[in-house]
Design a protein that fits this description.
The protein is of the alpha+beta class. About 65% of the residues lie in helices and about 10% in strands. It has eight helices and four strands; from the N terminus they run H-H-H-H-H-H-H-E-E-H-E-E. The longest helix is centred in the N-terminal third of the chain and has 34 residues. The C terminus is likely disordered. Pfam families: MFS_1.
């Protein structure tokens, strides 16, 4: 059967859905915030050196800093490759958000341009790794019948975060860099807690296909195979099922 929007808020998925929405909002808010804040932080640093001109320009070193920091997204690939299947989805996601929070908060420090470049590099790396995590986890969380619906609504929350982040990355940061960086840091710490408290670990979990109308006690069963066949041969075979917890059984 086709999935319904209310299935995302069913008893089995309500908590997971709400936490996934927070994670998608947070990762887009932070990732695009870092993209926008990079130039603003460098501009504010240069404004302190400009005494006679109200126009503050970026220097060659500033553009090099932005280029090097953007290469941090390449580091997200090995981070996800080694952590997600080794530590599991929830722990690796939490570590990615935690790393983003720590390095984002450190940007407010009065450090050299080289050190600032390193901090921005790791913010981009962990933020990009967090983006990879939410895509992987969300696609594995929901059964096929509501997977597209679940990821679509979650992605909509990411767009909300992307629309709101310029007010922090370009407006608030121009008044106070510490206030802006702490805003991003606190949000990432909240996402870290959400990751560790996710009720379903999808590592090694069979990917369900659809929600079953049959209930076994308090556990809803989700069919893993193709639609039931009425042929005599199919009737003799057992149907594999996966529960919400990820365990497999026979029905």
């Amino acid at each position: 059967p086709l999935g319904r929007p209310r299935d995302l808020l069913s008893r089995e998925y309500l908590r997971s859905t709400l936490q996934v929405w927070v994670l998608w909002f947070g990762v887009a808010f932070t990732y695009y915030g870092m993209v926008l804040a990079s130039a603003e932080v460098l501009r504010l640093r240069n404004s302190e050196k400009s005494e006679h001109c109200t126009c503050v320009y970026l220097t060659t070193e500033d553009y090099a800093t932005m280029l090097v920091s953007s290469l941090g997204e390449l580091l997200s690939l090995p981070i996800n490759f080694f952590l997600i299947d080794w530590l599991g989805r929830r722990i690796s996601g939490g570590l990615c958000y935690l790393g983003t929070a720590i390095f984002f908060i450190l940007i407010q420090l009065n450090v050299s341009l080289t050190t600032l470049t390193i901090l921005m590099f790791f913010v981009r790396a962990f933020a990009s790794a967090s983006f990879n995590f939410v895509y992987i986890y969300s696609s594995e969380l929901y059964p096929t019948s509501i997977r597209t619906l679940g990821m679509g609504i979650a992605s909509a929350w990411a767009r909300v975060g992307a629309m709101l982040t310029p007010f922090v990355a370009q407006v608030l940061i121009s008044h106070s860099i510490p206030m802006a960086t702490w805003t991003y840091g606190i949000l990432c710490l909240a996402c870290t807690v959400c990751c560790f408290l996710l009720p379903i670990e999808t590592k090694g979990r069979a990917m369900p296909q659809s929600l079953s109308v049959e209930r076994n006690g308090d556990i809803i069963e989700m069919s893993e195979g193709p639609p039931s066949d009425t042929s005599e041969h199919a009737a003799e075979e057992d149907t594999r099922v996966a529960t919400v917890s990820g365990k497999e059984g026979l029905r």
